[in-house]
């Protein structure tokens, strides 16, 4: 049975997802300061898979073979993005990584146009430019371009593909299954790399609270919200909303680790929020009601 819901619900779901991801910045920093990155990624994604399967153990059975293949492909892009960003961070600054990885907001309309001949409205490009400027103001501090930056740019492309394909292939009725499958792929990829690098160790007891939050909240719930919402809105609109992630990151860093909101962060956040409003006002003029199954 299909029930109509308010069209802003998908937007709200993505806003909540970005808040969860943003809250994970400071918590992830705590984890990786005491633990290896790849094993942390493995246990985080494993927790997400266990949460998803324990709640809906038969969700994967709802997928057709083609849908399962789609889920594997999308999960591979997501996992590759996670891994490349972690590797790139070892060869560049966090500020450079934040800006360059955020270039998915520019790449998404380009990839959609190239692969699927998507028509991008001029107002969407305006929002993309504003969001990109906001990211730059928030994060850039004399960034050069070397190996780390190049790898992070590939990260942005991987996330662009994940965002684009979720909007193309996603369906609300299999959102839970698609989320589970994506997380399974990330779990397997991070496990193989952890074993290959001989870094797989059981997490310290004092980090389990953080890992459980990262897996269940910033992992399972956030990806589920993204997967469900993107079945109903365009990839470009989703990408613009995702630029709010560093804004939330700044907010939570003030709350959790007493960071200070500087003028560049405030100006950048204002630009990103402006881009979101431009995108949403434009979408409100033409969108159809979304559905929830």
Report what the structure shows.
This protein has 12 helices and 2 strands. With 293 residues, it is mainly alpha-helical. It has one domain (3-292). The chain has a two-stranded antiparallel ribbon. Helix 1 runs antiparallel to helix 9, helix 5 (104-116) packs antiparallel against helix 10 and helix 7 packs across helix 10 (235-242). The longest helix has 25 residues, at 8-32.
Please summarize what this structure is.
The chain is mainly α. The chain is 75% helix and 2% strand. It has one domain (3-292).
Key phrases:
two-stranded antiparallel ribbon, 293 residues, mainly alpha, single chain, globular
Write the layout of secondary structure elements.
Layout: E1 3-5, H1 8-32, H2 37-55, H3 65-89, H4 94-101, H5 104-116, H6 122-139, H7 147-169, H8 175-196, H9 208-230, H10 235-242, H11 245-257, H12 263-284, E2 290-292
Antiparallel strand pairs: 1-2
Helix pairs in contact: 1-9, 1-11, 2-8, 2-9, 3-7, 3-8, 4-6, 4-7, 5-7, 5-10, 6-12, 7-10, 8-9
